[in-house]
Amino acid sequence: MVDSVRDLAPIVAVVAFFQLVVLQQTTANLGGIVVGLLFDLIGLTFFLVSLEQALFPLGKLMVKQLTDLVFIHGASAAGSIVENVRRHDFFWVYLFAAAIKAD
Questions:
Q1: Tens-place pLDDT, residues 18-46
Q2: pTM above 0.85, yes or no
Q3: Is residue 35 part of a domain?
Q4: Do 33 and 76 belong to one domain?
């Protein structure tokens, strides 16, 4: 939840700055805004936890499987070292990385 607060803080600061300094207006429904921010904080927290628990491990598993020499060269690579691994052998890894825009 601390990460979610850190992620939301700049957004809240920019909106508050424009509301108070640029527009020079107070908010009409401050209580509703605070409740909305709390719901946003809870939702963002659950979303980030679900990514860390489910999607990221799945991505790591897929990359491990896609880079396995048995997957790339077939069953003939099992138990042996393939010496002539070429860059285009990892086409599916590159495609997967481009699809998820890995950081």
A1: 888 888 888 888 889 899 999 999 999 99
A2: no
A3: yes
A4: no
